[in-house]
Design goal:
Layout (H helix, E strand, L loop, with lengths): L16 H10 L2 H11 L6 H6 L5 E7 L5 E7 L5 E5 L2 E4 L18 E8 L4 E12 L4 E11 L6 E7 L8 E6 L4 H9 L2 E9 L5 E10 L6 E2 L4 E6 L7 H8 L2 E7 L6 E11 L3 H4 L6 E14 L4 E7 L13
Antiparallel strand pairs: 1-2, 1-5, 3-4, 4-7, 5-6, 6-7, 8-17, 9-16, 10-11, 10-14, 12-13, 13-16, 14-15, 15-16
Helix pairs in contact: 1-5
Length: 324
């Protein structure tokens, strides 16, 4: 039976020019114009409002005072995220003082938010602007809400939570070239997160987005000079990340060591490779994304949650890895 949507739930302009250009190049523009009009909402449906309070983490994307894009993560006891109404999230957590986004959680600032439940592979987005702010957290005025498919998410189970103050957090920061500890974390990762942003043609911020990326360990190629490359597989065809990169280019990456609790954040520029010999060398890839880091921050032991890998995503069965 066909699902019918009320006329008021339709979004007449769900995508910006970068996203539409990427969809056109991929041959899905007409299809996504129809899909986007009904799934890209300016409010959260009830299932999303019920989903966020279940989570112990929330991924964020934002822009710092240098106009650089970063990805980050917040955490707390399930329930630290709540939804007073269908256009508002309340988050009872703030980025750590060392986090590049610490000063970006201010009223009026745009943030991208991603809720991901590793146990079930569910994920939902809620992008918008910071509303109220206090010493305990902030509200997010949701302006864009939509779900994502579970592809390429590895299932993980939360095993332990490190005691607060039980470990000294070592922080290392730099520009460009990456230390060996950062390279090792990237090369062994099967999951990372990417934040991107886009500007509208009149110069006003169009918004910030943060997204999940997954693959077999080794699917991200990392060079000592801070250049990263990874494959882009078949997805939901929204092209939010790729559209932002095509229109803007700023990006921030977040890698997490789910066993040791290390957090690696990078900001820089991203580009999309739609064709070429290197693309053909990676099984299952539709495009390649390249990232050049300008600044990075490695915080050892900063993430208190410990997660055990349970199952690799079945969507990755026909994909490969780089030769390091």
């Amino acid at each position: 039976m066909e699902t019918r949507f009320p006329a008021e739930s339709r979004n007449p302009a769900p995508f910006h020019r970068g996203e539409m250009a990427a969809q056109e190049r991929a041959g899905v523009r007409e299809q996504m114009a129809r899909v986007g009009a009904v799934v890209m909402r300016d409010y959260m449906p009830e299932q999303h409002r019920e989903f966020f309070p279940l989570l112990p983490t929330l991924l964020l994307g934002g822009i710092d005072r240098h106009d650089e894009v970063w990805a980050s993560i917040l955490w707390g006891e399930p329930g630290f995220i709540s939804s007073p109404d269908n256009r508002t999230l309340r988050i009872d957590a703030l980025p750590a003082a060392q986090d590049p986004l610490a000063a970006s959680v201010m009223p009026g600032q745009r943030l991208g938010a991603l809720g991901l439940q590793f146990e079930t592979r569910r994920r939902n987005r809620a992008n918008g602007t910071v509303g109220e702010l206090d010493e305990h957290g902030f509200t997010l005025a949701v302006q864009q809400s939509f779900g994502n498919c579970p592809k390429y998410i590895q299932t993980r189970e939360l095993t332990t939570v490190a005691a607060a103050g039980g470990q000294t957090i070592e922080t290392i920061a730099g520009e460009g070239a990456l230390p060996e500890a950062a390279l090792a974390l990237i090369r062994h990762s099967d999951t990372f997160f990417i934040a991107t942003a886009a500007e509208a043609s009149n110069g006003a911020a169009h918004g910030v987005d943060v997204s999940h990326r997954g693959g077999r360990p080794g699917f991200v190629s990392a060079e000592a000079d801070g250049t990263l490359c990874w494959p882009d597989f078949t997805g939901n065809n929204f092209f939010n990340t790729i559209g932002n990169l095509e229109a803007d280019g700023r990006a921030g990456l977040l890698f997490i060591d789910f066993v040791q609790g290390d957090i690696l954040q990078m900001t820089g520029r991203g580009t999309v490779e739609w064709e070429g010999e290197r693309l053909r060398q990676f099984a299952g890839a539709k495009r390649l994304l390249r990232f050049e880091a300008s600044r990075w921050l490695l915080r050892k032991g900063a993430f208190p949650l410990r997660w055990a890998l349970q199952e690799q995503s079945p969507s990755l069965e026909n994909t490969g890895v780089w030769d390091q």
